[in-house]
Design a protein that fits this description.
The complex is a heterodimer of chains A (about 300) and B (about 475).
Chain A lengths: L2 H33 L9 H6 L3 H7 L5 H9 L8 H13 L7 H17 L6 H25 L4 H33 L6 H11 L3 H8 L5 H10 L7 H13 L5 H16 L7 H27 L6
Helix pairs in contact in A: 1-5, 1-7, 1-8, 1-9, 5-6, 6-7, 8-9, 8-12, 8-14, 12-13, 13-14
Chain B lengths: L17 E3 L2 E2 L4 H7 L4 H18 L2 E6 L2 E6 L2 E9 H25 L4 H4 L5 H5 L21 E8 L5 E7 L6 H14 L1 H6 L8 H10 L11 E4 L8 H11 L2 E3 L4 E3 L5 E5 L2 E4 L2 E4 L22 H6 L4 E3 L10 H4 L2 H9 L11 E2 L3 H9 L4 E5 L9 E2 L5 H13 L4 E5 L5 E6 L2 E10 L1 E4 L3 E3 L4 E5 L13 E9 L5
Parallel strand pairs in B: 5-24, 8-9, 8-13, 13-14
Antiparallel strand pairs in B: 1-2, 3-4, 6-7, 6-21, 10-11, 11-12, 15-18, 16-17, 16-18, 19-20, 20-23, 21-22, 23-24
Helix pairs in contact in B: 2-6, 3-12
Classes of the chains: A mainly alpha (about 300), B alpha+beta (about 475).
Chain lengths: ~300, ~475
């Protein structure tokens, strides 16, 4: 498989996953904001920080604002953090690797992009917002299912799986980060909303029922965080994503360095969670995991995407 | 109200389906009868369904406009163009004959040059040809074949004669649209496919693969065949990806390939370097190898010509094959066929005046307003003059161009291109069209059943290029059972 093509498959899958997760992120935050009093001081701009796009946002919308934030994250094609930009990038990557994907997958990506371009600018109204974002989640899930069910699980698919799971792990840490940041804000107002917030987080990751089945305890923040970080079976839990990365990496040639990076990260996730979860520490830990995930990406790129590696 | 053929007036051009108002041609009757069972409304709905399918299938072509690349949906007309199989057999034989002769010509030009020594072809034409590559002299590609894929442009004049208008031997495009048009048409008119004997076209990718595989320098069961594309911003990128996918070949860009010290070509893969046997290149000659041509080209593969000359890799079409794809050489093709095959050309040429000959040039300058003047090296309909439609200023400009660079221009009479019924705002109206069949030659040769019909969607227009407002139709070669 060509290095250039492997890289595009990987990024195509990452952008699809990013579009889905950004939609989930906005959805959960939307729900959480409804439960928060204004004086908590938590608003839409926080999402920009969590996506690591503060500079870009300030340059583009110097006056800030809620509407602008939503536009920046959802429908602004000039913002690299927006869902519509991710869909465009996903489409471009799949378009340029059409020869490797099942025809239906390309059509599905194309339709997904057309849907996003058409529907996403309409999300200013909260009611439409939920519907459209759910539409993005549903369609990306459909694409993921289509790829899993119709594409041979060979090298090309392994790069898709790498991109998907790396992005997913990254986004799960960002969603935990958001919850922690929101709680920090809410604590200031003495407003106990732990339960509802963590429930919203689970729901945003379609993990509420799975949590109920596997944890069998009332919703407690430590348990939810542990579930989202450590659970090996829930597909959006970080540990599960890392397991998927490991499996895919093992199937690819010259995999020693990327494998080491993933194993290192797995150990980190298992051991670093403190016994009592305190929001500020949690946020630091999530930041740390994001840095480590970026390091895994660096190893993947060095092993497989760099064109001048000797044979 | 149903579609009525008595209200369809083909006018003075030859219409492919209807000979006179109310009189469908015999080979088109199944189709015309079916269409007349539909109302214009229902027909329009099918057109819309086809257009939706095209958008959903992502069939696009890229247009260069104001420095930007825009992906447009492929413009398509659902009414097929129908050709009788009995007529097609003659055209097919003519195309095979032509490609065989052209390959003998190219091989001769780069080797013995018998035709020049015998005085049957002017040496000057070769020496001044921009497509002649001296770097190819002495090369011996497999089977003596240089042009493996040829897309000829055929047109039919008002008297029904089919002419070859151009031989595209460099990087002809359009075959993927032929294939997609058929897929869309099957969705739109499934009933007709059940009841007619329409020759299939969907075996093209496997014929192409067999042709390419037959060129492999290594005797392998599974030669590594790749499609070399200039990249996603090329207007035909859709097609490059489509063909690679349907052949199961890698789609590579220049940067994916490397020529190693052993003069073999390798591609960069996740497992390291892998040897490449056959390159179906969709980049122009001069962008193949920056070592030999444009030193600043990002598209090419340094050392590729060296590897090819050493016989370590096959390139289709071979570098230099374009020497026979020059509108000035075109004028001599009937002579070329006679010289190498000792046969008369089955398919006629459009009478062509070469401005390089003084007598022809005088004629062209005197009759500019009646002629089509073409630059010998352009494709896609760019840079040509259609005399009857030109302004005084354009005529003066071309007179200057012809006088300044006579080698670069040829002139032909304006043909009244044939028409076929085309759906325009819910009505069927005649629109002019041409036909591009695709011929293959490797160890064996083959021709597509039909080809890509391109149609000028603007009333009265003769320009069928998709970059200039043209659309396309599915092309049916039908067995009528009467022959």
């Amino acid at each position: 498989m060509l290095s250039r093509v492997a890289e595009r498959m990987y990024w195509g899958a990452r952008y699809v996953e990013r579009a889905e997760n950004t939609a989930r992120l906005v959805r959960v935050y939307d729900a959480a904001l409804l439960d928060l009093p204004d004086e908590a001081g938590v608003g839409w701009p926080l999402l920009v920080d969590i996506c690591g796009a503060r500079e870009m946002f300030n340059a583009r919308y110097p006056k800030g604002g809620d509407r602008e934030t939503l536009k920046f994250l959802i429908s602004d094609p000039e913002s690299p953090s927006s869902i519509v930009a991710s869909l465009g990038q996903a489409r471009e990557n799949f378009r340029t690797t059409r020869d490797l994907c099942p025809t239906e997958a390309w059509r599905s990506v194309n339709e997904l992009y057309l849907f996003g371009r058409e529907a996403l600018p309409k999300v200013a109204s909260p009611r439409r917002r939920h519907e459209v974002l759910s539409g993005v989640v549903q369609r990306t899930q459909q694409l993921t299912g289509l790829l899993s069910g119709t594409m041979s699980h060979g090298d090309a698919y392994n790069f898709i799986r790498l991109g998907r799971n790396l992005e997913r792990a990254d986004m799960t840490t960002r969603i935990i980060d958001i919850a922690a940041a929101t709680l920090l804000g809410a604590r200031a107002t003495e407003n106990g909303l732990d339960n509802t917030l963590w429930m919203a987080v689970l729901k945003s990751l379609s993990g509420y029922q799975m949590y109920r089945q596997y944890v069998r305890r009332r919703i407690r923040d430590e348990d939810v965080i542990r579930f989202l970080l450590h659970d090996l079976l829930f597909p959006r839990a970080v540990a599960h994503c890392l397991g998927e990365l490991e499996t895919s990496i093992l199937k690819l040639p010259n995999h020693e360095a990327p494998l080491r990076a993933v194993l290192r990260l797995q150990r980190l996730v298992e051991t670093e969670l403190p016994e009592s979860v305190e929001e500020a520490a949690l946020r630091r830990l999530m930041d740390g995991l994001q840095v480590e995930l970026a390091a895994v990406h660096g190893q993947l790129a060095a092993a497989w995407f760099l064109p001048d590696r000797a044979a | 109200m149903k579609i009525s053929w008595s209200q369809y007036d083909p006018g003075t051009a030859w219409d492919e389906l209807i000979s006179a108002p109310g009189r469908p041609r015999p080979h088109a009757r199944t189709l015309t009868k079916y269409l007349s069972s539909l109302t214009p409304n229902r027909l329009s709905r099918r057109q819309q369904a086809a257009e939706r399918a095209i958008v959903e299938m992502g069939i696009t072509f890229t247009v260069y406009s104001e420095g930007q690349n825009i992906d447009r949906a492929w413009p398509f007309d659902i009414i097929p163009r129908v050709i009788a199989a009995s007529e097609w057999r003659g055209i097919e034989a003519g195309l095979k004959q032509r490609l065989t002769a052209l390959n003998l010509f190219i091989d001769d030009i780069y080797n013995e040059q018998r035709i020049l020594a015998d005085g049957r072809f002017p040496r000057e034409v070769i020496e001044t040809s921009g497509n002649f590559l001296k770097e190819c002299l002495g090369a011996r590609p497999a089977h003596g074949v240089w042009a493996h894929i040829c897309g000829s442009d055929l047109v039919r004049d008002a008297d029904g004669t089919v002419y070859v208008l151009e031989d595209n031997l460099r990087v002809p495009s359009g075959v993927s649209y032929m294939l997609e048009n058929r897929i869309v048409t099957k969705q739109v008119f499934p009933e007709l496919f059940a009841h007619s004997r329409i020759l299939p076209v969907d075996n093209y990718p496997s014929l192409l693969f067999d042709t390419l595989a037959s060129l492999s320098p290594r005797p392998l069961d599974y030669p590594e065949v790749v499609v070399l594309t200039p990249g996603i911003y090329n207007s035909a990128y859709f097609e490059h990806a489509y063909l690679a996918q349907s052949m199961g070949a890698e789609l590579v860009e220049g940067g994916d390939l490397v020529v190693a010290d052993d003069d073999c070509v390798y591609m960069r893969t996740i497992a390291g370097l892998e040897r490449v046997d056959v390159i179906y290149r969709r980049v122009n000659d001069t962008f193949l190898d920056p070592e030999m041509f444009h030193a600043d080209s990002m598209l090419g593969v340094p050392g590729l010509m060296r590897a090819w000359r050493a016989g370590n890799v096959a390139i289709a079409n071979a570098p230099g094959a374009g020497v026979a794809d020059d509108k000035l050489v075109y004028a001599y093709v009937p002579d070329i066929i006679r010289y190498y095959l000792d046969e008369d050309a089955i398919l006629p040429n459009v009478p062509t005046r070469a401005c390089i000959n003084d007598e022809d040039q005088r004629y062209v300058l005197d009759h500019l307003a009646e002629l089509v003047v073409k630059p010998v090296n352009e494709s896609g309909g760019y840079g040509m003059l259609i005399g009857p439609a030109a302004s005084q200023e354009e005529l003066r400009k071309f007179a200057r161009l012809v006088k300044r660079e006579p080698r670069n221009y040829v002139a032909q009479p304006v043909l009244n291109l044939s028409t076929a019924p085309t759906l325009v705002h819910g009505r069927l109206e005649p629109r002019h069209l041409d036909l591009r069949p695709f011929s293959l030659q490797g160890e064996r040769s083959a021709v597509t059943a039909g080809g890509l019909t391109r149609v000028a969607l603007v009333k009265g227009s003769l320009v069928v290029n998709s970059s200039q407002g043209g659309g396309s139709k599915d092309t049916w070669v039908v067995e009528t059972g009467e022959d």
